[in-house]
Amino acid sequence: MSTLLEVRDLHVGFGREPRDNEVVKGVSFGLEAGKTLAIVGESGSGKSVTALSVNRLVDFGGGRITKGKITLQRADGAAIDITAADEPALQRIRGREIGMIFQEPMTSLNPVHTVGAQIEEAFRLNRGLVGAAATRAAREALERVRIPDAAQRLRYYPHQLSGGMRQRVMIAMVLASNPRLLIADEPTTALDVTVQAQIMALLAELREELGMAMIFITHDIGLVAGIADDIMVMQHGVAVEQGKLDSVLDNPQHDYTRHLLKAVPHFTSGSAVRSDGGSHAAPIVTVDNLAVRFPVLKGLFRRKTGAVHAVDGVDFELRPGETLAIVGESGSGKSTTARAILGLVKATRGRIEAKAGRSGRPVQMVFQDPYASLNPRLNVEGLLAEPAIAAGQRVDAKLRQRMVFLLERVGLTKDALSRYPHQFSGGQRQRLCIARALMLNPDVVVLDEAVSALDVSVQARVLELLIDLQREFGLAYLFISHDMAVVERIAHRVAVMYAGQIVEIGKAAAVLGAPQHSYTKRLIAAVPAIERRRQHFAVDVTQVPSLVRPAGFEPPAAKWREAGDDHRVRVEETA
Predict the structure, then answer these.
(1) pLDDT digit string (tens) for 400-429?
(2) Residue 304's domain spans which residues?
């Protein structure tokens, strides 16, 4: 095969003196047509800056290529030096020759235009299509990326689609130009494991169909094993190891590569669950027949025509010192359940009993995004004081002593009290969030995707911290996650949610090792693993049933069957 892209001795810097502030330092690689190169590394490694340099988008973020050469073999056979190209030439390349998919589709899509209008614009710019021809092409692109009811979805706005659907829209826009090179920058990081598998299936299918090359940026080496031909591992702006997939994964030579491989949580179908056994004490949280519904209003007078049954008939118990993980896709109701326990959303029906223990405020929460969870105007002392002030406590020497105590417990020093959130890394910020949640000495901590935004090695350290804190303080965790490997590492018991209902619940080893419900089996089958090389991802068009019900609708009572000791499965309806 011919070389499509050649990168030689690439240096990229930022600021007024980019040569003195380089974040990419001498990276070189080649990419053949139809092949996939995975660039792997943690935050700050330079992997995304390297990718953004390929089409010179780094210029718009204050970056400059200070040295090196990037050569692209164009469709007409001519070679172009991207580092020396002017902006008009680059505009002809972007989209047409090089397509790009970013990590968060919500920031890439315009919220005030329908997805149809945005896809049509891509076809107009790249293929000159207008009117009915552009609309037809947009619909066909949505069908191509397996979005059901494509003609109707064209009229949707981005906020009306799930994360997985929005990412498919971004892929549909890229398809408007049939690029020869696709750069996918963490395209599945924020997605559920089953949706992630579908996006990977789609990308693999399109790569085969169009013969395009792909640069896949990720920190998930398990995901890389399923799709990549070659791997380049980056650390501190340097490519520390690169080579063929099997060679790097099976015989890593660099310490950092070995560190990354060791840090990745390996899913072992329940064989690596915690051995400390959880708790047999009386429940500290009891949820009985919980339902949360949001009204659907239509017409000029906002008449109620139905309701979104976000959570319907959920039951579970949580004991002191125990971790109950709730897993499921976006929209399954797991976060809504957690928010109902905290009183952040109102329960429509059911009973939630959280026993007041040591502090009188038994439940605290740690959210997914540590960047959005901390007020940038407050220093750490102010942030840690917030929950105490809200509880009517005074900021005195005793409270400051507890701040220092908790900072030490989460691996930070006393001098952190005077610093501000922007002065900490993502992992350190999440440690601050954990310390803040513990300020009122709660009995229960709700962790809503609390480690999903972290790099794998940081994630591993935060998980170890959570387990240590649980043992030290006797905490109960309600752990919301879509990552089955992480769940296996921390959970004593697992509840699987689907379409607003728990479909399987029991001991972690039983649920993860011997899943009984078809949805649980589908979740586990979608988990990426280093052992699955060049995995064939099958595109699954199974749709989650709509949660919108007509006014007055009540679901039939759930039927359950026992699958073993402390292992219950919802009986599935037969067609």
Answers:
(1) 999 999 999 998 999 999 999 988 877 888
(2) 280-359+477-575
Phi, psi of 389, deg, nearest 5: -65, -40
Token representation of residue 256: 């950092």
- CA-CA-CA-CA torsion sign (468, 469, 471, 472): positive
Q: Region 65-81: what's the mean pLDDT? A: 90
Residues 233 and 340 occupy one common structural domain: no
Mark whether 129 and 43 lie in a shared domain: no
| Pairing of the two strands 3-14 and 22-32 | antiparallel
pLDDT in tens, 281-310: 899 999 999 999 988 877 777 788 888 888
> Sign (positive/negative) of CA torsion 281, 282, 285, 291?
positive
Q: What values do phi and psi take at 492, rounded to 5?
A: -90, -40
**What CATH number is associated with residue 559?**
3.40.50.300
Which pLDDT value is given to residue 539? 56
Query: How far apart, in whole angstroms, are the C-alpha atoms of residue 265 and residue 488?
Result: 9
Same domain? For 67 and 93 the reply is: yes
Residue 391 lies in a domain: no
pLDDT the model gives residue 378: 95
Phi, psi of 111 (to 5 degrees): -70, -15
Question: Are 188 and 69 found together in one domain?
Answer: yes
- The pTM of this model reads 0.80
Pairing assessment for the beta strands 444-448 and 560-564 based on DSSP bridges: unpaired
Residue 213 parent element (H or E): strand 213-218
CB under 8 Å to 435, separation ≥6 — which residues? 384, 403, 406, 407, 409, 410, 412
Q: How far apart are CA 12 and CA 532, in angstroms?
A: 35
What digits encode the pLDDT tens for the residues 322-372?
999 999 877 788 888 998 999 999 999 999 998 765 555 789 999 877 878
Q: Are residues 296 and 355 in the same domain?
A: yes
Q: How confident is the model at residue 142 (pLDDT cuts 50, 70, 90)?
A: confident
315-333: b or e for each residue (b if 16 or more CB lie within 10 Å)? bbbbbbbbbbbbbbbbbbb
Q: Is residue 291 part of a domain?
A: yes
Given 264, 289, 312, which residue is the final one in a domain? 264
- Which of 134, 163, 178 is a domain's end point? 178
Is residue 91 domain-shared with residue 191, that is, in the same domain? Answer: yes
The answer to whether residue 68 sits within a structural domain is: yes
Name residues whose C-beta falls within 8 Å of residue 556's C-beta, 6 or more positions apart in sequence: none
First to last CA, the chain: 49
What six digits make up the tokens of 83? 């580092």
**Cα separation of 118 and 104, whole Å?**
16
- Structural domains in the chain (count): 3
Tokens in use for 439?
């300020």
Q: Per-residue DSSP letters for 298-348?
A: ETTTTEEEEEEEEEEEEEEEE-TT-EEEEE--TTSSHHHHHHHHHTSS--S
